[in-house]
Amino acid sequence: MGDNQLFGAGFGLFTLGVAASVLRKGSAVALQLLRRRLMTTLEIPVSDHSYHWVLEWIAHRPDMSCHFSVKTAFQKLHSGKISTGFAFVPSPGSHYMWLGKLSCSKLSECGKLHIPYETVTLTTIGRKKEVFEDLLLQARTFALQRQKNMTLIFKPMGAEWRQFGEPQRSRPFQSVMLAAGQSEKLWNDVTQFLHSQQWYIDRGIPHRRGYLLHGPPGCGKTSFITALAGELECSICILNIGDWTLSDDRLLHFMVSAPPQSIILLEDVDAAFLDRSSEVQDPRRQGMNMVSLSGILNALDGVVSSEGRIVFMTTNYIDRLDKALLRPGRVDVKELVTYADAEQMCRAFRHFYPTENTEHAEVFSSNLSKFTEKVSMAQIQAFFMLHRTDPKYASENVNEIIKASFIF
Ligand SMILES: Nc1ncnc2c1ncn2[C@@H]1O[C@H](COP(=O)(O)OP(=O)(O)OP(=O)(O)O)[C@@H](O)[C@H]1O
Ligand SMILES: [Mg+2]
Question: What positions does the domain BCS1 N-terminal occupy (predicted)?
C-alpha cells in the first residue's frame, strides 16, 4: 500500500511535469503561430539605406520610449577650441510606439564579433505591409529634410559602406574658384552624364565616368569635388588606396556597392604606383593585403560596375600614374587644377570682401601677379583670413603671401 502510495505520488508528479512541459512547448508554438498569423515583421540591415533614416526618425518621435544611446560628435579646431555636440539615437533593445491604428513597432540591434552588425526589426500587429511602406516613406522624407544642404561622407567599414561622422554642411559651389570656365565645364560634363543613362544603354556602353583632377597642393581639387557633391545632392564615398586592409577584391566590392547617388573619391591615386616592396617585407605588414595596379584597373573598368557610377581621382603627381589608368574608360576627363591666375585672385578677393570696392580687388590681383612665385588659392585664403578686417592692407601687402610661402 505504502509502495503504491509512493508510486502513485511519483507517477502524479511525472504526469504533472510532462503536462507542464507540453503546455510550455505548446504555448511557445502557439505564440509563434500567433505571431506569424497576427504580426508582420520587417528587418532592416545596417547596409540598407533606410537603416539610418529609420533610426533618426524613431529618435525624433514624441511617443518614443525614453531609452536612448548618446552619440557624441567631438571636434578639435585648429585654434585649439574644442566643440562637441550630442545626438540621441534609440538604444539597443525594444521600443514601442503607436503608429496609426493599434499597431506598434519594435527595434532591436545586435553586435557580432568585431564587426558591428546591426539590424532594426520592425514588428506590427496585423498583416498590412503598407504600414512599413508608410513608415519608410515618412522616415526618408524626415531624414532628407534634415540632410538638406548637407553632404554625407561614407567610408568602408568591415564589408559595408558606413556613414562617417555627422553630415557635413554642403560647401557652396561658388565658393570654389577654379580657372575661368573650369567649374562650369566639369559641372556640364557631370550633369550631362547623369542625364544620359538611356544614351549609354542604347549604345551598350557601361554607364560610368571617371574624372582625374591633378595639380599642385592647395589649389582646390578636394574642395571642388566636395562642392560638386553638395550641388548634385550626392554623398561622397572615400576610398583610401594606401589602406593596408584594402585588397583588390575589397576595392572591387566597394566600387560596386557604393550607395546610390554618390561620388566615389580616390584621393592621391598615385599612392598605388609607389614601390611598396620594402613595406611588404615589413613583418608588421605580413598577411595584410594591398591594392595592386591591376586591381585598380579592373575595379575602374572591370566587367562588374554599378549604374551611373562617378569616380573622382586626385593626384599631385600625374607623371607617376600608369598610362593604363589614364586611358578613356578609366579616366574620361583630366583637368589640371593649378595655381591662381589674375582673374581667380580678383574673384577670391571679391568673395572674401564682398562689400569692398572692386578697385581693391584689381590692385590685389595686379600686385600679386607681378611676382614670379606662384601661389595657391589655399595660401591666398590663409592670407585673407589673417587680414579679414583690413582688405586695403591685404591688397597692398601681397608680398607677405610670398614671404609666408617660403616658411612652409
Ligand atoms: N580654387 C579654390 N577656391 C576656393 N578655395 C580654395 C581653392 N583652392 C584651395 N582652396 C582652399 O584651400 C584649402 C585647401 O584646398 P583643397 O583641399 O581643395 O586643395 P587640394 O587641391 O585638394 O590640395 P591637395 O593636393 O594637397 O589635396 C581649402 O580650405 C580651400 O578652401
Ligand atoms: Mg586634396
Answer: 14-176
Rounded mean pLDDT for each run of 10 residues along the chain, 408 residues in total: 72 88 87 78 82 81 67 53 63 66 46 56 81 88 84 87 85 95 97 95 93 97 96 93 83 89 93 62 58 88 80 94 91 97 95 90 92 92 92 90 64
What was the pLDDT predicted at 112?
40
Alpha helices for 257-330 (secondary structure H): 277-281, 293-301, 323-326
Q: Of 236, 109, 230, 91, whose CA–CA distance to 163 is shortest?
A: 236
Locate 20 and state its grid cell: 507542464
Residue 103, ligand 1, Cβ within 6 A:
no
Q: What is the pLDDT of residues 265-275, one digit of tens each?
A: 999 998 877 65
CB 375 within 8 A of CB 335: no
Query: Would you say the CB of residue 262 lies under 6 angstroms from ligand 1?
Result: no
Cell (9 digits) for 43 = 528587418
Beta carbons within 8 Å of 113's beta carbon, 6+ residues apart = none
| Distance from Cα 367 to the centre of ligand 2, integer Å | 28
- At the fourth CATH level, which superfamily is domain 168-336? P-loop containing nucleotide triphosphate hydrolases (3.40.50.300)
The CA 338 to ligand 2 mean position distance, Å, reads: 12
